[in-house]
Amino acid sequence: MVKDFELKDCKYTVNDVVPCYDVDSNIRMKPVAFMNIAQEMATRAAEPFGFGYNDMLKKNMAWVLSRMHFVFVDTPLWNDEIVVSTWHKGIVGPFFVRDFLVRGTDGAQKVIGTSSWVVLDLAKRSMVRLSEFVGMIPDDSACHESAIETPAPKAMMPRGVEPRLVRSEVLGYSDTDMNAHTNNARYIQHAMNCFDYAELQKLSVAEVFITFNHETRPGEQLDMYMYDEPLGEPKLSMNGKPIVRSTIVEGKVGDMQAFCTRIVFN
Fold this sequence. Notes:
15% helix, Thiol Ester Dehydrase, Chain A, 2 domains, twelve-stranded antiparallel beta sheet, mainly beta, 12 strands
């Protein structure tokens, strides 16, 4: 994703192939794999416009992912050739919004996604008002098309329910990123590990909603709580297939919520 890319109509696009280490035993792309792709694409796509990682670091600032929603329309498989595009839509409400689209070589949609970002002042460890930051973003760098029309909603554990503790992990080396805290994609990996492996062989991930609330660091214990939402009347996910399970997983360090995700299955 570094050497060969196309920048056209404010969209950053690369061609790729799904590798063996990004799929499960059904040779389907894992949710964590898409999040890793999206993370790298977001970083690379900002560079030509002057607000990439190094540009932000010079101002002692950094992009922080706050929310994400993505849909497996037609889950990519091992060795599939894919075309991955990303573009930003500027400031929408309190967030900077960036969308993602994964297509097959025939142009058919494979994965669609949208993400919401904030800017962190690294010295103060506090959020920068986007109204103060907007001057860094060229006016002509935004694309107002949508992979998903609605910005990512906040994933929340419902009030009044009693989620069950299903797993605890002590965070370590493999969880950390360049900033020495837990990489956002690792949370969905920890969340997926909360499910019974045999059950996952029979289900397909349709949608993922995830909200990041507090950073975590190596040595901290991440406790994960699970709640299965009642399905009620039959509903379809955004890929047009029936929802067979919808589960919320909340990760906490002590009483502090680090992340919350809602994972929808077909």
